[in-house]
Amino acid sequence: MADDTMTDQPAERRPVDDVEAIRQAALNYVQGWYEGDVERIRRSLHSEVAKRRILRDPNTGEEKVRHVSQQLLIDLTQQGGGSEVPVDKRYYDVSILDVSGEIASVRAESYEYVDYLHLALSRGQWMIVNVLYVLKAAPDGEPT
Q1: How far apart are CA 5 and CA 11, in angstroms?
Q2: How many angstroms separate the CA atoms of 8 and 74, rounded?
Q3: Which H, E and C letters describe the chain, residue by residue?
Q4: Which strands form 45-56's sheet, in the order they lie side by side?
Q5: Which end of the chain is less crowded, N or C, counting CB atoms within 10 A of the terminal residue's CB?
Q6: Structure confidence by residue, pLDDT tens digits, 44-59
Q7: pLDDT (average), residues 109-136
Q8: What average pLDDT does range 119-139 have in this prediction?
Q9: Nearest residue to 110 via CA among 126, 131, 140, 129
């Protein structure tokens, strides 16, 4: 019977290194968006990333899934991303929820969004593979 607890990670890879690399990938993603930094965004995302959220038509209640690809996210970042948000309103709260071998789950909260990120170790680098997100509501009830 195979031992599922074994990994083929190199001996020099320490869990603390992984935790820091996971945190940095998440920060590259959220900070890169608000700074309009395409390279930070590109570094954080796997080429096959799937970023999604559920949209509901307020009149009919009909739902659809909004899908954002790596290229669209890079294009939007290049156009300024979240850089229009005043610097004094920006914050980044990154919580690593779980790490299991070569996958991890992270919650990233910022001024406008709550993102749940799934990362994987790909070609020796922690990269975001999946994002499920929601726009936060402003105090007046409107999305920010």
Answers
A1: 15
A2: 32
A3: CCCCCCCCCCCCCCHHHHHHHHHHHHHHHHHHHHHCCHHHHHHHEEEEEEEEEEEECCCCCCEEEEEECHHHHHHHHHCCCCCCCCHHHCCEEEEEEEEECCEEEEEEEECCEEEEEEEEEECCEEEEEEEEEEECECCCCCEC
A4: 63-68, 45-56, 125-135, 113-122, 103-110, 92-100
A5: N
A6: 999 999 999 999 999 9
A7: 96
A8: 91
A9: 131
Encoded tokens for 69: 């690809």
Partner residues linked to 65 by β-bridges: 54
Q: Which two tokens stand for residue 79?
A: 């156009």
Q: Indicate the CATH number for domain 15-135.
A: 3.10.450.50
Per-domain residue ranges of the chain: 15-135
For residue 125, what pLDDT is reported?
Answer: 95
Q: Residue with structure tokens 């992270």? A: 106
Could you tell me which residues are beta bridge partners of residue 132?
52, 116
